[in-house]
Structures are given as C-alpha cells and as structure tokens.
Amino acid sequence: MVSRGAASLRRGLSPWGSLTLLALLAPLVLQLPPPCSGDGSGRPPHLIFLLADDLGWNDVGFHGSNIRTPNLDALAASGVLLDNYYIQPLCTPSRSQLLTGRYQIHTGLQHQIIWPCQPSCVPLDEKLLPQLLKEAGYATHMVGKWHLGMYRKECLPTRRGFDTYFGYLLGSEDYYSHEHCAFINALNVTRCALDFRDGEEVAAGYKNIYSTNIFTERATALIASHPPEKPLFLYLALQSVHEPLQVPEEYLKAYDFIQDKNRRHYAGMVSLMDEAVGNVTASLKKHGLWDNTVFVFSTDNGGQTLAGGNNWPLRGRKWTLWEGGVRGVGFVASPLLKQKGVKTRELIHISDWLPTLVKLAGGNTNSTKPLDGFDVWKTISEGSPSPRVELLHNIDPNFVDTAPCSEHSMASGKDGSSFPEYSVFNTSFHAAIRHRNWKLLTGYPGCSYWFPPPSQSNISEIPSLDPPTKTLWLFDIDQDPEERHDLSKEHPHIVQHLLSRLEFYHKHSVPVYYPAQDPRCDPAGTGVWGPWM
Q1: Of residues 196, 253, 151, 223, the one with CA closest to residue 521
Q2: Per-residue pLDDT of the chain (533 residues; tens, 9 = 90+)
C-alpha cells in the first residue's frame, strides 16, 4: 500500500520519472526484512508452544500460588502475561481449537473428548497448524500428548503435518508404565495396554522412566540437533499435571506443609514441570535459538479440583464453563516482543494461536476452512487492542457432567423458568458466550462451587446459592471475575443480544460427532493402543 505522500510525489512525475524512482527504490525494498522477521536477520522466528495439561489458575507462582514455579514466573515476568486468556474446559476441544483455529461447533467435537475406542478424530479435511507451518518452510516436531483421535493411521500426528512425533495418543496414562486402561463396553472388559509412540512405531523401553523427563529429553535433543538457520516449530504437549498423581519422591519434600495428599503430590508434579520448562528454555539459549524464538505457554483447561488442581478464586473447575474451567494460565516470552514485563487484559482465545503463529511464520491461511481465531500478535507484542471482541465458549446440547456437585444431576437442566419464554435460544442447552466484558451462561454449566486452596483453608468447597433449576446467568467478568453477581435481570437487553448470538452460532454449527465405541479397538492382541481401521 503506497502512502499518500508517495502517491502525491508520483503524480508530479512523468512516466519515465516514475520508472526511475522505482528503479532507485527497488534495492531498498528488497533489503527490507519480511514482517515475520524476528531478530532483524530476515529469518522467521522459531515457534515453541508448550501446553500443560490440567494446570489450574491458582497453580503457578505468578498467580499467587504457594506452589513454586520459578522458571515459569521468570518467563512470565520477562514477557507478556495473558490475563484475559481462554481455553476450553477439556483436553480434546482445546487441542483441536489450537491446531485448527476453529471452534469445536465447527468440527463436531463439541461434546466431551475423544475416548480410546471411539472411531473419531479431528476431521481429515481440516488443515492443521503444523501443515501450514510446514508450507511456510518450518521443521515441525511434536512431543507429548496427542488426544485428537487415532482410530485410523490418517489421524496420527505424522499424517497431520508433523515431521516427527514422540508421545502418547490417548488422554491419560501411567507416568511410569505409559499404559492406559479403558473399559470396552461391548466386550464388558477393562483393557490396559501401552500407549507410547516414536513416529508411528511403538516405543518400548521407557518403562519406569517418568514421562515429563522423557519428553523434556526428546525436546532438548530436537533443539540441540536443529540448524538455527531453519525455522523450527516445536509443539511440546506435556502429560503434566494430569492425573494420575505421580511424581518422584524428591519433589514432595518441599511441600511437607501441605496436608492434603492430592494437593501435595500435585504440587510436586507442578514443580517438576516447571523444571522441565527451565530445561527447554536453557537448551534454546545454549544452542543459539532463543534470540529468534517466540515461546508460548498455555494450559489446556482449568484445574481438576478432584485431582489436586485449584482455580481459586475463580468459580468451577475442569469440565465446566465457569471461569475456573475456561480461563487459562498463559504467557508469551520472547526477545522479539516490543513490550516486555507487562500484563495484557485484552481478550485472547486458544483458537487465536493458529492465525497468529502462521502470520509470524510468513505463511498464510488461504487453504483453511473459515477461521474463528484472530491474529493477536500486535495485541501481545505491541499492546494494540485485541481484534477479538466475542468468544463462544461452547454449545453442547448433550452435556453430561461425570463428576457433578451434589446440588445437580449429571445432565443439563431442562427447566427454562429462569428466563422468559420468548427466548430465541434454548436455555436448557449447556452453553456460554463472552462479548467484551459480558459473559452469558445457559443450561447446566457444570459444578458451580468455589474451591479454596486445600493447603490454606479448612473449607474444601463453597457451594453456590443458585437454585438447581436455574439455567441462565449474566456476569460482568471485568468487574466480577469470580462470577458471584448474576446481572441477568438488570440487563435484559444484553441477555437477549447474547442469546441471539448463541442461536446464530447454534444454527451455523455442525452436528455433534460422538460415535459409539468400536470393540475392534481392543488392544488385547498387541498389548498396544493404536489404529484399528
């Protein structure tokens, strides 16, 4: 785009004069680094995305937790802390939105997660982040948890854009044996089998080695062997700190003061994860990559209070649409940031990473389906207003809470009495939407309790006073991040507007894809979970 001044200058020149000017300017234009250039060298930046599993809002030092996370604290303090950042309340939905840049209502994954025996994966016609970065000239590596489907080989990470993959395909497993156990309904049997892969091959020989240490070792090896002149994308999706609550004994000593056993083990797991993050960043610095690196840290969902996690003072937990389930721990650290040591309150969502990172890489998203994510690099790096003003948390008509609070049944409420009958959206649906500072929730959002930190309070939970039949809430999240003051009756016009937006998204969603278990998944014959079709 030519500036007005340049345009005026050209209008005063003859055609030959214009050509002469262009000839003079051409070498200068060619010398300009591309917009993705990070360190002034003209090279696109290395992109490191580290995804923690089930890390809660109150589980890091920089949010005031008594769990020690010195490496994470230092990185967050030196970069940009994302204070208004959202993920999804469960593993598969967050990971799918990270890698597609699209809401789960557009991929059929709006209900729960992909379970081991479901013939499902992120739709094969979706173009994923590593594919786009590969097209932009990146080496693409993934280490850790996949959890985006594996019933066919075409669903595997190495078929979806990653040059290499090392990790596990399902949602959880033993940290030492690397086995996952699942009940197969049609066979009426529980099967336990190995879930560990190097590429597409079974990775044996890692028994009794803690997974976070294995994954860190692989990540640092990839960094050490990577030529700095080639752009690197490393997606490190740690198992930490998802249950089971397992950690080497030495990491528990610092937390003798925590009486709650789950919380004590969980704290040790967080500390080990923090150490892993420090090892990865140290490796980037040692091998000359850090100065041209953008390092993103994110959790995949809120903490699971049933397994040591904590989101205080936020309401709810993993599985829920309350802030404790969807407000994420996150930051960006990089020498390439134009602003550092700051906290941004601008609205950012996990689906924004795909367009943001692809643009940074000098790539394009022309070949994707319509994106729900936005390029938020200027928001993060320069402090510009976020292009995102609205965020759909989810719409799931079939929601079931597998661990409900005592005041609710497992299924969504069907009583719409808390809102007028003229509603444009079925308020019995489990749904939530955010528009600027306003957040609307409908149906049964999941466990509505507040959970004080187990180590700092004799009170384990604070119940909500909402009636069990209530199916609509409106909160001003900027003023009330703890979701204590429902303003739906005070602002009926805002309620109506947000309900109409939910109805718009619902009309433009694809049907839920949640197939029944396929007993052919049974790993009894091989002793290994993997593709069966």
Answers
A1: 151
A2: 333 333 332 333 333 343 333 343 344 333 444 444 444 567 999 999 999 999 999 999 999 999 999 999 999 999 999 999 999 999 999 999 999 999 999 999 999 999 999 999 999 999 999 999 999 999 999 999 999 999 999 999 999 999 999 999 999 999 999 999 999 999 999 999 999 999 999 999 999 999 999 999 999 999 999 999 999 999 999 999 999 999 999 999 999 999 999 999 999 999 999 999 999 999 999 999 999 999 999 999 999 999 999 999 999 999 999 999 999 999 999 999 999 999 999 999 999 999 999 999 999 999 999 999 999 999 999 999 999 999 999 999 999 998 888 655 444 444 444 455 557 999 999 999 999 999 999 999 999 999 999 866 677 899 999 999 999 999 999 999 999 999 999 999 999 999 999 999 999 999 999 999 999 999 999 999 999 99
Beta bridge pairs of residue 299 = 52
Look up 91 and say whether it is catalytic: yes
Sign of the four-CA dihedral 412, 415, 420, 422:
positive
Is the separation of the CB atoms in 502 and 433 below 8 Å?
A: yes
SS3 labels along 179-209: EEEEEEHHHCEEEEEECCEECCEECCCCCCC
Say how far apart CA 258 and CA 265 lie, in whole Å.
9
Cis peptide before 244 (omega within 30 of 0): yes
Active-site position among 36, 46, 91, 393:
91
Q: What is the spatial distance between Cα 533 and Cα 530, in angstroms, rounded to a whole number?
A: 10
Q: Which residues are registered as beta bridge partners of 70? A: none
pTM: 0.91
Q: Is 261 helix (H, G, I), strand (E, B) or coil?
A: helix
Largest CA distance in the chain: 85
Burial 489-505, CB ≥16 within 10 A → b, else e: eeeeebbbbbbebbbeb
Contact criterion met (CB below 8 Å) for 342 and 381: no
Active site residue 192: no
Residue among 46, 147, 226, 393 flagged as catalytic: 147
